Each structure stands twice: as structure tokens, then as C-alpha cells.
Amino acid sequence: MRPTYMPEILPHREKEINDLANVLVPALKGETPSNIFIYGKTGTGKTAVVKFVGKELLKKGEETGKKVNFIYMNCEIVDTQYRLLQNIANRFIHEWNDHVPFTGWPTDEVYSKVKVMMDKEKSVTVIVLDEIDKLKGDEALYNLTRINSELDNARVSVIGISNDLKFTDFLDPRVKSSLGEESMIFYPYDAEQLQDILRARIKTALKRGVIDEDVIPLCAALSAQEHGDARRALDLLRVSAELAERSKVPKITKSHVRLAQNKIELDRVTEVVRTLPNQSKLVLYSIFLLNKQNKKAGTTQALTTGEVYDVYKELCKKTRYNCLTQRRTTDLISELDMLGIITARVISKGRHGRTTEIQMSSSSSSKELLTVLQEDDMFKDLANYKMKGQARLTV
DNA sequence: AATCCACAGGAAGATTAGGATA
DNA sequence: TATCCTAATCTTCCTGTGGATT
Q: Least C-beta-crowded within 10 Å: which of A93, A302, A314, A378?
């Protein structure tokens, strides 16, 4: 049930598989398939479909004796033009002695090496660029989409995958038109489709009868609310199963799903907090401190920007960090809000001005987060910091 | 109805970091 | 390696505003 598992059957994606296969089929006749741009939210099966069709393409290629290459790359990892070309080149080179090294070659030398190798093989190559929006600079794309005119015997076509529809807006118009020769949109799954996907998966992943009737509908429904993300649904089910197993219960029940949902959310939040820039951490810590103080005083009063900023200034002095302006901290606060760590909304207190009301989100008020915050070096200086100001006088 | 607090949040310029380029 | 560029971050300065209080 892990996201890396590649299933044999992709429920409710038959149409997409067919469409994509139809576009790529010319490759088997030695012709150039159109370039394709694929758009769809996370967990809608883009990568799975493309990989699946790619596998089929290779299989058919072998059967018919046509030379077809299928290169899949994730641009989050292979994110520069050089590494992209290096990767492609090494796919064609099978002797160890003339691998293209990680660094050292001029980019255009790698580029011409790629061309030479391709031409020698006289093959059609399909290059998949997953998360293409993470690729730095559009020169790489420009070169790739243009490479066909410089090849004599070989052909290249590019499949770009992205979950950011606005991505194409920033592209060089030439690249844009060439990449978008053909485009596909993957729509989110609805709750019923998600159920089918889950059912298909548990057949191989779980023993019969270890799962309560209503667990699957619940998982499906919960993740359908979140833009129909199949990955999320599978995660939910997997974590539920793990929780059930750990507590030595023979059956997965609804309550495990609820627990799993909390756990996933907490994991997400702790991860976000861990990677927060230091200034944001300080702001968040200020909110923590104020929150704690309030709780001690028995009030559940929400905080205001001004209060948070005052504490933050103190913390900066203690940690010898330079202090940002209030203007900037309001931005940081609203970023924290967007990340779902806190809840911030603008309210007006009449005569007492307009401010943002800040609260810890329920999922993030836990000790775990505090621990994560405190493992940062800068919190050494704060280990035994006590807030000095008295409890607030305002009501 | 008028006032006025305590900020929100836009605009534009300054600074900085990291990557590209010569 | 030096330097140039760009995008992100941050500051300065600013105008705007919901509604309790006068």
C-alpha cells in the first residue's frame, strides 16, 4: 500500500491509458509521437498511468523488434539541465568507461553526446518529465523540444507532467506550443472510484476479513473531501492497518481510521514545522508561549498580532537573532496560517482596533510540536526562558 | 453619527542568497 | 574563479477599515 508500489490494474483510468497509448503508438512504427502535457492534482494517477503505458510500450517494442526507449525522470530530483542531459546520456551508454560524470563536462558537450548516441541507435525515445514545474530554467525544455530537428535517424518526444496548471503560463511560448501539442487532464477521483481503488489494492495487501465493512467507504469519503487524492486514501488505509496491527487487534475498524487521520495530520505538521525558517519558528514559539500563559491563567483568549510581536521581539533579543519588522511578522503569521499550523483571522475590536486573532490549530497544540521546535540549535538559549510580562490586562 | 484604535495589507525600493555565466 | 542576474526576503512608507465607544 505504499505510494511507490506500481499496481497492475488502474481502476477508472482506462480511458486515460487508452488516450495516452494512442498518442504514443506511432513510436512503434518509428514515427514521432506528439509531445504531451499532462495536468492533474496529486494522487490522480498521472505517474501511474504514464509508467504503465511506458511499460506496455517497451513490451510491444520488444515484440515487434522496434527500438523504443522510455525514460522516466522526476524533475524534483533531476532538476537542472545538466543533470537531465546527463541522465539521458547515461541511459544510452552501457560501458562503465564512458559514463558522463556528475560534473565536469560543459553542458553542450553532453547535449551533443546525447544526440550522437541517439542517432547511432536509430530509435524513438519517449522522455517523461514528472513534476516538470520543478525543473529549473526553461532552456532545458527548449533544447529538448527542439532536438528532433537536429537528429537524423532518431526521434524524441516529451511528456511533461505537472500538478500546477499555471505552470505553462511562465514558459517560453515556443516551448509552450511545442510541449502542448497534445494535452491531457486527469480529474480527481470521486468517493466511489476511490473505493474501487482501495478494494483492488487490499486484495493483494491484506488478508481476507481483517477489515471492517465500513472502513473502506470511510477512507474513500475522507480523501474524496481532499480533492480525491488516491495516494491519501491509500495512506489512510495503510496507517490504519499499521495502527491496528500495533495494538494487536485482529480487525481494522473505523476508529483506527480516525486515529490514522490524526496521525497523518500530526506527521505532516511536525514535518512542516521542522523545516520552517528560523524566524518563523521564533514566531511560532512566541505563540506557543502566549498560549501556555493563557492556559495557566485559565483563559482561552485568542492572541493578537501585537502581543505575539512583543514576545517575538523578546525572543529575538535572547537568541541574538535580528528582529524583523511587524509588517514582516504579519506575513509570517499568515504563512503559518496557510500551512495549517495556526488559525488566523482578521477581526475588529471596535475602538480597540483591527487585528488578527491567532489560535493554535487543534492538531498542532500537542507536545510533539514543542519538542520539534526545541530541537533546533537556537533554542538552546531559550531553554529556561520565562516570559517576563505579567498576565495581560486586557479582557 | 462621528471618532479613532491597532493593526491589515498594498507598493516600491533595498538587501541578500544562490545560481548562471564569462 | 570573479562577477553578474534573478528571485526571494525584508524594510519603509503608506492608506484603509470594522465597529465599540463617545
A: A93
Q: In Å, what is the separation between the CA of A354 and the C1' of B4?
A: 11
- Give the residue whose CA sits closest to C22 at C1': A351
CATH code given to domain A277-382: 1.10.10.10
Q: How far is the CA of A307 from the C1' of B4 (A)?
A: 20
Give the nucleotide at minimum CA-to-C1' distance from A324.
C10
> Which 275-304 positions of A have CB less than 7 A from strand C?
277, 279
Q: How many residues does chain A have?
A: 395
> Domain A191-272, what fold?
Helicase, Ruva Protein; domain 3 (1.10.8)
* Protein-to-nucleotide distance from the CA of A42 to the C1' of C16, whole angstroms: 39
- Separate counts of helices (H) and strands (E) for chain A: 14, 8
| Sequence-distant (≥ 6) Cβ neighbours of residue A33 within 8 angstroms | A23, A24, A25, A26, A27, A124, A126, A157
pLDDT score for A122: 86
User: pLDDT tens for residues A143-161?
Assistant: 888 888 888 888 999 999 9
Which positions of chain B lie under 7 Å from any protein Cβ?
3-11, 19-21
- What is the pLDDT, as a whole number, of residue A163? 84
Task: Note the strand C nucleotides within 7 A of protein beta carbons.
Answer: 9-14, 16-21
Strand C closer than 7 A to residue A248 Cβ: no
- Ordered by start, the domain boundaries in chain A are 14-186, 191-272, 277-382
Nearest residue: Cα versus C1' of C14:
A327
Q: How far is CA A393 from the centre of its chain?
A: 44
Strand C near-CB residues (< 7 Å), A 302-321:
none
Comparing C-alpha atoms, which of A38, A34, A67 is closest to residue A51? A38
β-strand A342-348 against A354-360: which pairing, if any?
antiparallel
Per residue in A207-232, pLDDT (tens digit) is 878 888 889 999 999 999 988 899 99
* Predicted pLDDT of residue A391: 44
Longest dimension (CA), chain A: 82
Low-confidence residues in chain A, pLDDT < 70 = 94-98, 101-104, 169-170, 299-300, 363-366, 377-378, 380-395
- The answer to whether A333 CB sits below 7 Å from nucleic acid chain C is no
